[in-house]
Amino acid sequence: MSDGGGQKTTNQSRNDEFVRATARIAVAQICENEGFQSFQQSSLETLADIAVRYIREIGKTAHFYASLAGRTESNAFDLIHGLEDLNLTRGFSGASDIHWSLAASNTVSEIRQYISLSEDLPFAYSLPRFPVLRERKLPPTFIDIGEEPPGEHIPAWLPAFPDPITYRHSACAIEKESEYGVELVREQRKEGLSSMNMVQRPEPNYGEGAGLATDSGVAFKARRASEINPFLAPPLQFGEKEVSPVVLPSKLSEKAVVVNRALAMETFGPGVETGRSSLFESVGGKNNNYNNNNISGTRPAVRLKFRSGRKFLATSMDMISQNHEVEKIASCFEMDEEEDEEKRRAKPILTETMEISRGFAQL
Amino acid sequence: MNHVQQQSDGRKDEESALTEFLASLMDYTPTFPDELVEHYMAKSGFQCPDVRLIRLVAVATQKFVSEVATDALQHCKARQSAVVKDKRDKQGKDKRLILTMEDLSKALREYGVNLKHPEYFAESPSTGMDPASRDE
């Protein structure tokens, strides 16, 4: 019957646990007084929980009646009214009366009877006042410091802005910064507030004249950083440093490309697909981009090696696949005349090798 | 006129009785400590600087708990006497009075609190089943 476990953690649950334990002790004392010698743990916890809920219910109803009357502080009559509401299910003499006064309520008289009959049973331990309130160190306000807040829109009773030294970038400021950060971290640990996380580094965006100061500070820091680390140096502007000019090889001039392009068209003739022709056009158009790439004459020609028939067993499949790939690649790019001749030479040999391999496979 | 006067007198008496009673509360120390009650009352929004009202709540809760405990004790004793009646050779097998969930739930039912307690906790859904019908 305990609360949904695992929902509350940290300080809240610890506080709760302590209070519940005291309630359990009190309930156990009462039961012992009645005559019980021992308890089942679950039943004791349940009864303690019910007692706690009873207290909370009385408080809730008393608060409700006080608010109903337009008050924030409850008084005795609100309490008695709440008690009556709770005891209504059980019934008490005078519950059905139409004209009744809270002062003469029978609930109270029943309680009075109970007190007179029962003995005094004080709590076994002495409890401190809880929850224990820790003194929070508030940051000083503008009035405390005696400073004038920058700008009319900031009232003087607000906490003052931190020292500009704490957030401005300078050699001596770094030490102070770390101190400030450490202090904050300590405070955070003490109070366990996560809101402090947001306040760890104050933004240097407010304050008059702070903008200019930070700009110069940033530039100064950049310069300092470049002295240490060349990778962080600001980029060089055009013409700042003298560099040797780039010499283009003659073969990669526009003229050569056009000639080769015409040759390619002749060699392929009607066999060239329309798709490929568009590719060639694009190559011609993007002439400048291909300055560094090897095209036409500069690319090494493909050489095919043909070995004796015996070796075809081991390498026939590879050879065939290689030849197919070569054919594909050759068809995509511009080709020389000599490559074309080789291709023509290769074709009958290829067909031969395929037949041989098939023959061997059958065996 | 007389009737109204009587009424007002009656009210004064009642109120004076109430104040007397609240004063007497300070002499009596309830089992529930003031701090505990104050903590839970503050949680529900009850605001009052008067200590006597806190004491009143504490006493009311004490009365409630003791009534529940008395009822549970009666249930427990009734069960024990029933057991003893069956087997006379064993003299009051268990003289210890233990507050069990069963007695507590019976006692609380009259107060409008429905308490249901699972009888046992099983390791797996097939625990306690017939071995023949159990799926391996």
Q: What proportion of the residues of chain B form beta strands (DSSP E)?
A: under 5%
Number of helices of chain B: 4
Question: Alpha-carbon distance between the termini of chain B?
Answer: 89 Å
**What string gives the helices and strands of chain A in order?**
HEHHHHHHHHHHH
Number of helices of chain A: 12
Determine the structural class of chain A based on helices, strands and strand pairing: mainly alpha
Gyration radius of chain B, in Å: 25 Å
Residues in helices of chain B, as a percent range: 55-70%
What about the largest sheet of chain B? none
> Which residue ranges of chain B are poorly predicted, with pLDDT under 50 across at least 5 consecutive positions?
none
Question: What is the rounded Rg of chain A?
Answer: 47 Å
Overall body shape of chain A: elongated
Strand content of chain A: under 5%
* Order of secondary-structure elements of chain B: HHHEH
Number of strands of chain B: 1
Instruction: Report the principal-axis shape of chain B.
Output: elongated
- Unreliable stretches of chain A, pLDDT < 50, 5 or more residues? 192-215, 269-294
Please count the beta strands of chain A (DSSP E, at least 2 residues each): 1
Distance between the termini of chain A: 83 Å
